[in-house]
Amino acid sequence: MHKKSTYILFTLNKDNTEIIVLKSSESTDYDEFLSELPETECRWAVYDLAFETDGGKRNKLVFYHWSPDDAKIKQKMVFASSRDALRRSFVGIAAEIQGTDYSEVQFNDVVEKVKRH
């Protein structure tokens, strides 16, 4: 399966007052993207998901809200309340993925969710 991708990771500044870009990457490795999602901190990401269907190759933008179970409660609350503002700033998002652990953001599962939208 082809895994070409480009992604941008977002977080909040230290004062929790501003959404900032943490990293952007043109990596073609989905597992590398997953490794950027920390086990104890929240993140948002926009991912240009490349996948194949019966009709050929497709690319869809996917918005990720990463809120792991082990993140601090305050951080989860601030990220949850700020999510919509960030999400609305993007045009062309095909699907939104919410993940609390890595099993919820596996490549094949994400592709299936995107295909349904």
Automatic annotation (TrEMBL):
PANTHER family to which the protein is assigned, alphabetical:
COFILIN-RELATED
The organism's superkingdom is given as: Eukaryota
Coiled-coil ranges per UniProt? none
Q: Which CDD domains match?
A: ADF_cofilin_like
Give the chief site where it resides. nucleus
Q: What is this protein called?
A: Cofilin
* GO biological process entries: actin filament depolymerization
Organism name: Meripilus lineatus
Q: Which molecular function terms from Gene Ontology are attached?
A: actin binding
Q: Name one Pfam family in it.
A: Cofilin_ADF
Which residues does the UniProt record annotate as the domain ADF-H? 1-115
Give the similarity note: Belongs to the actin-binding proteins ADF family.
Q: What keywords appear on the UniProt entry? A: Actin-binding
Which terms in the GO cellular component ontology are assigned? actin cytoskeleton; nuclear matrix
Cell compartment(s), UniProt: Nucleus matrix
